[in-house]
Amino acid sequence: xxxxxxxxxxxxxxxxxxxxxxxxxxxxxxxxxxxxxxxxxxxxxxxxxxxxxxxxxxxxxxxxxxxxxxxxxxxxxxxxxxxxxxxxxxxxxxxxxxxxxxxxxxxxxxxxxxxxxxxxxxxxxxxxxxxxxxxxxxxxxxxxxxxxxxxxxxxxxxxxxxxxxxxxxxxxxxxxxxxxxxxxxxxxxxxxxxxxxxxxxxxxxxx
Length: 207
Fold this sequence. Notes:
CATH superfamily: Ribonuclease Z/Hydroxyacylglutathione hydrolase-like
Oligomer: single chain
Strand content: 25-35%
Structural class: alpha/beta
């Protein structure tokens, strides 16, 4: 399983292309902008996209969704608790962003604990509310895509409508840091990390 990180859009949100190089099948996580760049990388790697999965519905993570959906015919998936946010440019904050208003109709709504398949690999959906009500983390093998829940050395903002500091801390401490220390963390912004590193150095987890 290979992971490609593409920081996209004016907010440099991390879009991830996760793929099985044997069968050339991929999942695209959080195409937040630069849809043409994402499609070019998919074509360069000769990949067929099975799913477009959104860790949450904020505008900086969804700006490239329609371009990627149109270019790949892959379905757009998001947790059921963020579905309405995704479809409303005020609630998803895109109406206030430089990129402009974005509203997306999802193709499938996800639930906590749901499992998807990519080749021989299982995609595990973990509901991690706090930054948004329907925020998710996505575990594929030893890789954990945490969206704006957990960053290297920090956590996601909780000063938005529907956000909750208590919920995001609970999501991290009761779900994410229970994984082995060598589990790789791929966040929605910034560099990658590991569970072990965050347990040791992240001030929001230590305190």
